[in-house]
Design goal:
Distance between the termini of chain B: 106 Å
Structural class of chain A: mainly alpha
Order of helices and strands of chain A: HHHHHHH
Number of strands of chain A: 0
Helix content of chain A: over 70%
Largest interface: A-B, 54 and 52 residues
Largest sheet of chain B: none
Helix content of chain B: over 70%
Radius of gyration of chain B: 30 Å
Largest sheet of chain A: none
Order of helices and strands of chain B: HHHHHH
Number of helices of chain A: 7
Oligomer: heterodimer
Strand content of chain B: under 5%
Shape of chain A: elongated
Chain lengths: 211, 140
């Protein structure tokens, strides 16, 4: 159902289509085209990962040397930050579903703060690499590193904008009838950003040639 | 004065209201806060998202410690890291994204996680696999 049609049913019949824990209809949360977009996005990232692993064949020593130059603790911190931001988003969605915009706003603010912390750490990591002389043209590994993390960073920025938009929609004490649909959609997209990073982290930072 | 419309409930409600104890200040403030925050705000114990989050954080720390510091054998560490990351991704799309088995994207997400994990493992062990295959083909 489109967001507008869903709101019609909510307003006219008082139906709960929010896909909360008691979901009886088997539609995933979020607006209609969202899951197609997410699935295609996953396909795109799979191709990037495949290209990276293909390039790695025969160049394991070079890739290992480049991997060692990366700051792994920055990436670990980023993983923990994104996981925490996802928890805040879940709590915000819960608050919105229960008709408590103040609680939803609070958790959304914390989630956005975590997202900004991720962005700062990522830019810091890139700056570290570039200042050490390893830019995007420094070799195959670095090319893929900047491209994959850059693509992910773009997704994170889009997700942050969506969360900020939801914050704006929840600004009143009375929630609009679309607010739950918006925040579940933005939340699902943010969880995708988190999920992608969870798979990017071992691919780039942890894979080591067998001994 | 007699009410214009009779109903069967008002009298019972009036009796019930008169027999209820008045709320103290603290309890009244608490209930006002609960009405503002919604029923989920005050829940005893850990909720499901919190448990999932704790497991995700623990898995991250374990996989990075075992590989990062070189404590475990590298082959085992890489295998553990890939498996743990696959399980973490599954936790995210099952519990955070609320993708249940009846929903269509679930299959695609499971497939993606499986394919990426296989890609990482096969890609990492490719030199060993190709050497083994070459040997097997030469022998035959």
């Amino acid at each position: 159902m489109s967001i507008r049609a869903e709101s019609e049913v909510v307003v006219r019949l008082g139906a709960d289509l929010s896909n909360g824990p008691m979901t009886k209809n088997k539609t995933p949360p979020g607006f209609n085209g969202l899951w197609l977009l997410l699935t295609l996005d996953l396909g795109a990232f799979f191709l990037y990962f495949f290209a990276f692993m293909l390039e790695r064949q025969g160049n394991e020593a070079l890739f290992e040397q480049a991997r060692q130059s990366l700051n792994i603790w920055n990436a670990v911190a980023n993983t923990l930050i994104l996981l925490t931001s996802s928890w805040f988003v879940v709590k915000a969605i819960e608050g919105a579903r229960e008709g408590a915009p103040r609680r939803a706003r609070q958790h959304l603010q914390y989630a956005i703060f975590c997202g900004l912390a991720f962005a700062v750490l990522k830019v810091w990591a890139w700056a570290e690499e570039i200042m050490a002389g390893n830019s995007i043209t420094a070799g195959a590994f670095y090319g893929y590193y900047f491209a994959i993390t850059g693509m992910h960073f773009f997704h994170a920025l889009v997700g942050l904008s969506a969360l900020a938009l939801c914050l704006h929609k929840l600004r009143d004490e009375v929630m609009g009838h679309n607010a739950v649909a918006w925040i579940t959609s933005a939340g699902v997209f943010w969880h995708l950003v988190d999920m992608l990073w969870v798979m990017i982290f071992p691919l780039i930072y942890l894979l080591r040639a067998p001994q | 004065m007699k009410p214009l419309l009779r109903d069967n409930f008002s009298a019972d409600l009036a009796v019930e209201a008169s027999t209820m104890k008045p709320l103290g200040d603290v309890e009244l403030a608490r209930r006002r806060q609960d009405n503002r925050d919604g029923p989920g705000a005050r829940r005893a114990g850990l909720s499901k998202p919190t448990i999932v989050w704790l497991v995700l954080m623990a898995a991250t720390v374990i996989s990075c410690l075992s590989v990062g510091e070189g404590r475990a054998h590298p082959n085992l560490a890489v295998g553990v890291a890939v498996v743990l990351s696959a399980l973490k991704a599954r936790l995210i799309f099952i519990h955070f994204m609320e993708l249940e088995w009846g929903m269509q994207p679930r299959l695609w997400f499971e497939l993606w996680v499986a394919l990426v994990s296989v890609l990482m493992i096969v890609g990492n062990w490719m030199p060993v696999i190709s050497a083994y295959l070459r040997q097997a083909l030469q022998a035959s």
